[in-house]
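Supplementary notes for students who missed Thursday's class. We covered one full example, reproduced here. Read the sequence, then the structure, then the short commentary at the end.
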Amino acid sequence: MSFQPISLRSLWGAILILALAAIPSTYLGAQEDAPAEEGPAEPDWTFDLGLSYLATTGNSDTSSGGLKAAATKDWGARDLEVGAFFLRAEDDNETTVERYGAGITGARALNERWSVTAGWAGVKDRFSGIDLRSVLSVGVKWMTVDSQRWTLDSLASLTWTSEEFEGNIPSDDYLGALLGVNSVWKISPAADLSTKVTYFPNFDQSEDYRFEGDLALTTKISASWALALGYQVRYDNLPVPGFEKTDTATTASLVLKLPGVAAQ
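Structure (token representation):
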């Protein structure tokens, strides 16, 4: 099915609402939570940019490229994260992979362990038959483990999913959920191993569930640069007709970590 402009306006409208709702409250919160005593200012935002590229000629003519960016703003009890990614590959001048998307998530801490979250994520993957999949979510996050060597948090959210498909397949909207676990283990002062597991049930049709798993090893090679090796598996129990249930991707990328700016 061709992409409908009205759906695009609705998605960007949702992003704008989330941004406008988060920014004023977080700004006010920063004023309320400002420390009484002067001290060393801590960075309140981070920015990561990952780039990957591979090209071969001769017996094979292939190329692939990827980009992943993420920015996080921290206002103490509140934070906002914005991210985007792009992945494309060609084989003998024929596109074989084309997947890209973006997302925004805001969180408000209730105490040291619990916080409420809201967000939006959208993805386009024509080689899986997805013209556009949009997911709005509202839920809670629990910081299960928070130590210097290991952090583990769990996320439970209600979701509203809108899907537009390639070809003459009707679009679909449904209420569902997002259940996730995120973990970061500091192997050494220069290396981290992160895992992310997410399950997406569909309340309208129990057989239409999805699963995503990510594993990444990141090693610092300088103050600003790091090497990241990643593996992702995506499973759709009811894929678009004519497409496989399981997709995997293995990536190697160079990551630029820009220094944070101290909070004012």
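Commentary. The chain has one domain: 5-33+48-258. The longest helix spans residues 5-32. If anything here is unclear, bring it to office hours.
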